[in-house]
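HUMAN: Mind making up another protein with tokenized structure?

ASSISTANT:
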Amino acid sequence: MSSSTVTPKTLTYVSGSSDSEQQLDLYLPSEQAASGLVVFIHGGAWRTGSRKDHADLASHLCAKGKAVAVVDYRLSVKDDQGLPKHIHPVHVQDVNAALAFLHVRDDVPRKDWVVVGHSIGAWLTLAAIISGSSSSPDAQYPAPMPIPNSAARDSIKTCVLVVSASCPFIY
């Protein structure tokens, strides 16, 4: 991709959080108002990946006039005792919080968003547009899906789910 590099704004999308995994990089066109918003949610099996891995893609789309947000979410890495630091549904809660945060920003278009998710990011993309509930009222695991922010969800026009490089699915 040949495009100039854009310096993103790194923003914390959960008020008061000091966790770098609850941040997003927001790329805004410098020469004109953004013609839309692309939100990218990385993959990595809930254990790896970072918004930083997709800076080239974000810069390329931004150079084409799009605002781009590349979202990190808390990963299920192991703690000192070998247990996951974060488990479902925190990943979904983080993505929902990022979308709600973006929706109230004045520098981000409020409609016709394109949300792109790669691998587990595709699953998180779907979780951002569906309201889930447990099929059993006393179910403890897995925890029910968090309810997405309805205003942010209504801003989404298209979801692109990329399971592998050769198999994108557009919703």
Summary: The helical segments are 55-63, 90-103, 120-127, 150-155. The chain has a mean pLDDT of 83.
